[in-house]
Request: fold
Amino acid sequence: MSSGTGAALRLLAAAVDAKAVAEIGTGTGVSGIHLLHGMRPDGVLTTVDSDPECQQFARQAFRAAGFAGNRARFIPGRALEVLPRLADGGYDLVFCDGDRLECLDYLAESLRLLRPGGLVCFEGVFADGRTVDSAAQPAEVQRLRELLRAVRESTVLLPSLLPVGDGLLCAARRG
Reply:
């Protein structure tokens, strides 16, 4: 993740006064640290990843960054199996950095999870410039194009594509 993307995530979490954030794709914890820095001091990050080793590494990174253990809830498993168990309308921000082939499903789950006025963000939507390249593209790039179209055409989302890192697609859920 680029420093610009991290800064944008911090700002967005702060702008919505985030108390509850869901993250799809824990990774090494870099994005989670940025989100936690932007969240309210009593906020909790719920992070989902299918790789328990990544989550353990992120747990250590959060601790090293000075965050108390109760600031993050780690849920191992496939996102599309875990997300349906999370509370409807219980999240201020959903950050998606998981399997690109599942991004449309993440969008559907995010709409259910977000409170009115909440944000959904997708990292890496430029796919190294491939989303705008007219040449034949792999399935993951085709799916990103479908995601961009779905967000743009949605009547319940107010989207913006931020040119940071490899593209950060953000959309506010209308009330």
Notes: The helical segments are 3-15, 30-38, 52-64, 79-82, 103-113, 139-153. The longest strand covers residues 114-123. The radius of gyration is 15 Å.
